[in-house]
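<purpose> Linking amino acid order to shape
<body> The protein record starts here
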Amino acid sequence: MTRYRVAVHITPRTGILDPQGRAVAGALHALGFAGVHDVHVGRHVVVELAASDAAAAEREARTMCERLLANPVTEDFAIATIDETAGAA
């Protein structure tokens, strides 16, 4: 088994109220960033896991997101990166 570091981005679904994102967008406008149209504030989760290959690591991370890390009703997730780490698990 090889150890992998999988990074996942979890964000509010489009159309779901995102008060944090709205506050950040307002603050950016107040700072003079007039071109900002929309902001979504989410989470960045990094999981280190053992798997036989990168595809298996991605499947495992996707299952983790579907079952626990992301709320399927209000959030979307995307696997951002899958990197092999030093050492075997």
Remarks:
- The chain has a mean pLDDT of 94.
- The chain is about 30% helix and 40% strand.
- The CA atoms of residues 10 and 77 lie 4 Å apart.
